[in-house]
Amino acid sequence: MATYGRHGLDTHTALEDALCTLEGGRRAFLTPSGLSAIALVLLSLLGPGDHALVSDSVYAPLRRVDLDLLRRLDIQLEYFSPAHDDLAALIRPQTKLVYLESPGSLLFDVLDLPALTAIARARGVPVAIDNTWSGGWFLQPLKLGANISVQASTKYIAGHSDVMQGAVIVDSDDLARRISITHEALGLTIGADDAYLALRGLRTLPVRLAQHQTNATAVAQWLQRHPQVVRTFYPALPEDPGHALWQRDFSGASGLVSFALRDADAAAAGRFVNALQLFSIGASWGGYESLALVAPPERLRAYRSWQNPAPVIRLHVGLEDVQDLIGDLARAFAA
Ligand SMILES: *Cc1c(COP(=O)(O)O)cnc(C)c1O
């Protein structure tokens, strides 16, 4: 029972319980945005002199938390490429956290989560993973050995582009205690109406995600055959390098599809996005509507697995009629 507003009301408890059920977790913590959920994990588990390993295709604003906050606290984050680096060799005595995201942001590279979590667990290092892409429905990372799942509930959980919210779901009482101390110290809380919006979103999460998958698969298959596309990034495509891992660990694919343009520069990519009429320009995906943006080249350069100068466009394929969406893309290519 709540004793003070900041500690939440029954609506908050109902959402925390639902998120624990969704992710197979022990306790859930609510935060005012996905980024604050990420910062909560980092600040809870890391202190001066500590080191953490972070996969290089992670949601890029995490690097701002690193530069603007963690460095001042003498906390060192090291970015590694799970495809190229040996995680076991990178873990040091000071390593207190492995932080992953799968599929990665922008290019959706799929990580071998059971293998990576086994390495970290053998060294006693907790593993957190950003699970926003799957909405918690297509992947349960705690069942694959991760200890903490991070959700930007702003995206698929709320699902209607009308609320900002995050969540941290943990697998043990010990981690719950450590996260709860920082959550309390920072006074992190959300409004009960926002918690209600996330609960309402959860009720349609499976049907929305199934439709995102159907539409995104059709768009990805169409893009893959298009002569002006060098490469399409969508793990549900059999040709995608992450397909086998995705098929093993995930029960579906969500609405994000990226593609690299052939013989085009940044200006041409900008013209393409501007020519779209049904896809709005926007970053915060996960709602009903289709979105497009040119992936920032400096963010792509941080990924060791894709060193190609071709401009990349990221789509969020929404719930609209997919033939209309493909027609819009065809018009933009023509333009
Ligand atoms: C959007 C996003 C976040 C941050 O969520 P906000 O609610 O916008 O702060 C974190 N991780 C991933 C993968 C995201 O796409």
UniProtKB/TrEMBL annotation:
Which cofactor names does the annotation list?
pyridoxal 5'-phosphate
Keyword Transcription regulation attached: no
Drop me one GO molecular function for this one. Answer: cysteine-S-conjugate beta-lyase activity
Task: State the InterPro entries in the record.
Answer: Cys/Met-Metab_PyrdxlP-dep_enz, Cys_b_lyase_bac, PyrdxlP-dep_Trfase, PyrdxlP-dep_Trfase_major, PyrdxlP-dep_Trfase_small
Catalytic reactions on record = L,L-cystathionine + H2O = L-homocysteine + pyruvate + NH4(+)
Q: Which UniProt keywords apply?
A: Lyase, Pyridoxal phosphate
Query: Cross-referenced Pfam families, in alphabetical order?
Result: Cys_Met_Meta_PP (PF01053)
Annotated EC: 4.4.1.13
Q: Which PANTHER family match?
A: CYSTATHIONINE BETA-LYASE-RELATED (PTHR43500:SF1)
Provide the family line: Belongs to the trans-sulfuration enzymes family.
Protein name as it appears in the record: Cystathionine beta-lyase
Instruction: Identify the species of origin.
Output: Cupriavidus pampae
